[in-house]
Design a protein that fits this description.
By secondary structure, this protein is mainly beta. Helices cover 4% and strands 46% of the residues. The strands form 6 sheets. It has a 7-stranded mixed sheet, with no helix packed on it. The chain has a 7-stranded antiparallel sheet with strand order 6-24-21-26-19-18-17.
Length: 315
C-alpha cells in the first residue's frame, strides 16, 4: 500500500475514487490511501421475451447466470438493467473489503441513491456501515439505508464470512437494521407429498422493517424437499434474483425460466445467482435439498402479489 500526503479534499467526509485499478481513499487529514481495487462489476442488459426464447444454452447462461458470486478477498457484483438491481458477494479472508461507488453508479458513494440488503451465508465477521460495526454470523442479515457511506466487510482466515448482497435504487432514507435470523419473519409452506416443504425467512420485508423497494429473504428447504415453488408463478410488478447455496457436493438445481408457454432451464451449481425478469416464471427443482436467497424490486413489496401458473399451462 502506498501513502501520500496532499491537500485535503473539499468534501469534509471521507471520499472514495478509482484511479485505474487502484482505489483512492481521501481522508480529512489530507492522506490518500492507494489500495488495490477489490470490487469487480459485471453488467447484464434487459431482454425482451421474444428475443430470449431464441437463446441457446450458452446465451441463456451468458445473459442470466452470474457464477462468480464469491471470489476470495473481492467484492464481486453483477449489475442487471432489469430494475437496476445490483447483486453479488463479499468474501473477506485476508483483507477488509470496501464497498464503493464510481462511474457505474453516478456517485463516489455506492448507496448515495441506493439501499442494500445483506445476508451472511457462512462463517462469521463484521460489517461497518456509517461508523457502526455489526457482528455477523451465518443466517444474520443487515439492511443499510440510502446515503450510508464507508461500508467495509471484514472476516478472518479461521472462519471467513461470505456475505451475499442485493441493492436497488432508493428514494428515501431509512435506518440501518441488524436482522438476526430470529428476527426475520418466518413462513412455513409446502407439503411433503409434493416435495416442497420449506420455511421462508423474510428479512427486508414490511413485517420486519421499512425499505424503499427492496424485498429480500432466505428460503430453507427441509430434507427430502426439492421444489422451491410449484406451481410456478410470475409477478409482472417485480423482477427477482435467486442465489442458490448449501447444496451437497455434486448436486444441482434446475432453475426454470422463460414465459409459461416457452419454458427454458438453467442448471445452477452451488453459490450461483440467476436473474429472473418480471416476464419469466419463477420456480426450480434440485437433485437434493438446498437453500436460496431471493431479492426483488419493482412496483410493490406485497410478497403474495403473484400470478400462479398451473402445471397444465406450462410448456
Amino acid at each position: 500500500m502506498e501513502v501520500l500526503r496532499i491537500r485535503p479534499p473539499s468534501r469534509p467526509n471521507t471520499t472514495v475514487k478509482y484511479y485505474g485499478k487502484r482505489l483512492l481513499i481521501f481522508t480529512t487529514s489530507g492522506i490518500i490511501l492507494l489500495q488495490e481495487n477489490t470490487m469487480k462489476l459485471e453488467k447484464r442488459y434487459a431482454q425482451h421475451p421474444d428475443d430470449a426464447k431464441l437463446y441457446d444454452t450458452e446465451k441463456m447462461r451468458d445473459h442470466f447466470l452470474f457464477d462468480k458470486v464469491f471470489v476470495k478477498d473481492e467484492i464481486s457484483l453483477c449489475y442487471t438493467h432489469s430494475d437496476r438491481v445490483v447483486f453479488g458477494g463479499a468474501f473477506p479472508v485476508e483483507k477488509e473489503l470496501r464497498l464503493s461507488g464510481g462511474k457505474d453508479f453516478g456517485s463516489d458513494v455506492f448507496l448515495d441513491r441506493r439501499e442494500l440488503g445483506i445476508i451472511c451465508i457462512s462463517g462469521g465477521g463484521t460489517i461497518k456501515a456509517g461508523g457502526t460495526v455489526y457482528q455477523m454470523k451465518k443466517g444474520d442479515g443487515l439492511y443499510i439505508g440510502k446515503g450510508t457511506a464507508d461500508i467495509v466487510f471484514a472476516g478472518g482466515k479461521d472462519s471467513p464470512p461470505k456475505f451475499y448482497m442485493a441493492s436497488t435504487p432508493a428514494h428515501a432514507v431509512h435506518p440501518t437494521v441488524h436482522i438476526p435470523i430470529e428476527r426475520a419473519n418466518p413462513r412455513r409452506l409446502g407439503e411433503q407429498a409434493t416435495c416442497n416443504v420449506r420455511t421462508i425467512y423474510q428479512y427486508v420485508h414490511p413485517a420486519v422493517l421499512v425499505s424503499c423497494q427492496l424485498s429480500m429473504g432466505m428460503t430453507i428447504l427441509e430434507e427430502g424437499s426439492v421444489w422451491n415453488t410449484m406451481p410456478a408463478h410470475t409477478h409482472e410488478r417485480r423482477m427477482e434474483v435467486y442465489f442458490y447455496f448449501d447444496m451437497k457436493p455434486g448436486q444441482v438445481v434446475f432453475h426454470l425460466h422463460g414465459q409459461p408457454d416457452e419454458t427454458r432451464h438453467i442448471v445452477m451449481k452451488n453459490e450461483e445467482s440467476v436473474i429472473s425478469p418480471s416476464w419469466s416464471i419463477h420456480s426450480g427443482a434440485g437433485t437434493s435439498t438446498y437453500s436460496f436467497i431471493w431479492a426483488m424490486a419493482g412496483e410493490n413489496q406485497t410478497f403474495d402479489d403473484m400470478d400462479t401458473i398451473s402445471t397444465e399451462e406450462l410448456k
